[in-house]
Amino acid sequence: MSRLRLGVLISGRGSNLQALIDAAANPDYPATINLVISSRADAVGTERARHAGIPPRVIADTDRERFAAEAHHALRGAGVDLVVLAGFMRILHHGFVESWRDRLVNIHPSLLPAFPGLHPQRQALAAGVRFSGCTVHFVRPEVDTGPIIGQAVVPVLPDDDEDRLSARILSVEHRLYPLAIRLYAEGRLTIVEDRVVIKGAGAATELGETVLLNPPDVCEALASRAG
Ligand code: GRF
User: Fold this and answer.
1) Which of 1, 47, 86, 101 is least crowded, fewest Cβ atoms below 10 Å from its Cβ?
2) Is the CB of 11 under 6 A from ligand 1?
């Protein structure tokens, strides 16, 4: 089996990079990480890459066009098939986004299209939503837009603050990103009219019947009275 070649772009902690490193350590996983690019020399994620035997490439140039040219060159040189943004904190040059169209994915810690941009967990708390989560999507030029591959949902709990909600979302990010990339690597994703169609995703699954109520105790009591 030839495995999909990933180039991962990071700027910080790199816990999603770690989740992908861990997934790719299994020889049955259909992708390998061939290049890690960091926009910061001191990103914790660069240590994780080194530890996994992938010498990180640091491109700290803040000029958008020069960054794009250098990153593009490095990704092509490493034979990368799919570019994976994992906590990459720069806005990419539109030419880069166009060159990697449909071969560039991102993870965002909200249920897009809700709460794009900075501090999505803070935005979710301020809006008072009962559920939030994360989204893996193909990247389009506007920030945090593009066809959605998958989402994971977590409840927002009464005593949540930004840190607690972020941690709960992050733990599901680490599960969703490797799964979404597996789907891509297995050739199961097609984009039709800017929406992702997943081959083999049956309509009549258990999930189709799932209703989540939050707050669970209050909602369930009301539902039984209504019934
Ligand atoms: C994650 O919450 C990701 O969704 C967002 O930035 C954060 C990166 O965390 N885009 P890490 O660097 O992967 O730990």
Assistant:
1) 1
2) no
